[in-house]
Design goal:
The protein has helices at about 15-30, 45-80, 95-105, 125-135, 165-170, 175-180, 205-210, 230-240, 255-260, 260-270, and strands at about 5-10, 35-40, 85-95, 110-115, 140-145, 155-160, 180-190, 215-220, 245, 275. With about 280 residues, the chain is of the alpha/beta class.
Length: about 280
């Protein structure tokens, strides 16, 4: 597998510039066609307000929506200027997650931003982003809202729990893993037995990746007092990781929404770009 087309969600938020930087780096690395997508939201004015204020309110709302779309396009054009990349601009109307997921099905990789509704109330929330991850059937790269990322995939941490989702994520990430200087496959609190991690946790997956030419090592941590996401983020910091690869929603999504889980914790607290697959 190689990456020939990349979709990036573009909005006028302050953090979109860093997302576009990542998209540009990856499009150049893989020689991929880069698609910028902006979604104009549906009209959200309450019915009673629309009735009372009518045309004036609707006009102001449309003007704001169009201004946001134009600002997004200007940002995209500015980042693409002089890159000599193959690019495309798309604007659609509707729900952000629906339209990202639809367009993502025709691209090898989709790039979105970590939700940051504290500083940008208009940004998609965590539930919109995880609906994209669940709906696309493609890998989704989530870029943190804090920090800048000049390298992506030089040192990679793979979260391995012997699940279908983790297996899918590793397969989707092979273009990154094959080019990485170092890949660490980490099993956290591994379970014994044929249906789980095997005799040496993460070793079988590391051997599989080595056959693909990946420079890889196997590791495992046992940490009963902190969450798996915290272990992954701690290891990522120790290793100087610039990409985390993991399966998303190994348990039912409704359980993670209600009780918390690794996927949700990573979406909330990530410190490096995370490639997720379901």
């Amino acid at each position: 597998m190689t990456i020939k087309d990349i979709l990036v969600h573009v909005d006028p938020s302050p953090r979109c510039a860093a997302r576009l930087d990542v998209a540009t780096i990856l499009a150049r690395r893989f020689g991929a066609h880069l698609v910028g997508l902006h979604v104009r939201p549906f009209e959200t004015t309450p019915g009673y307000a629309a009735v009372e204020l009518r045309d004036a309110l609707l006009k102001l709302n449309r003007q704001a929506t169009e201004a946001a779309a134009q600002a997004a396009k200007t940002l995209f054009d500015r980042h693409m200027a002089g890159t000599q990349l193959s690019t495309e601009w798309r604007v659609t109307d509707g729900y952000v997650d629906d339209h990202i997921a639809l367009n993502a099905r025709y691209c090898d990789l989709t790039i979105v931003g970590q939700p940051d509704r504290n500083t940008d109330p208009s940004a998609p929330d965590e539930t919109a982003i995880d609906r994209v991850i669940l709906a696309t059937g493609r890998p989704v790269l989530v870029v943190p809202y804090a920090g800048r990322f000049e390298t992506i995939g030089t040192r990679v941490l793979v979260a391995w729990d012997a699940s279908r989702e983790a297996t899918r994520a590793i397969s989707d990430a092979l273009p990154f893993l094959a080019a990485a200087e170092k890949v660490t496959v980490l099993a956290v609190n591994p379970r014994d037995g044929l249906r789980h991690h095997g005799d040496v946790p993460a070793a079988d997956m590391a051997l599989h990746l080595a056959r693909h030419g990946v420079t890889v090592e196997a590791a495992h941590d046992v940490a009963k007092d902190i969450g798996v996401a915290d272990v992954l983020l701690s290891r990522a910091a120790d290793l100087g990781v610039d990409l985390i690869v993991m399966g998303a929603y190994g348990h039912a999504r409704i359980l993670e929404l209600a009780l918390g889980g690794v996927t949700r914790s990573m979406l909330e607290h990530m410190t490096a770009p995370v490639l997720m697959s379901h």
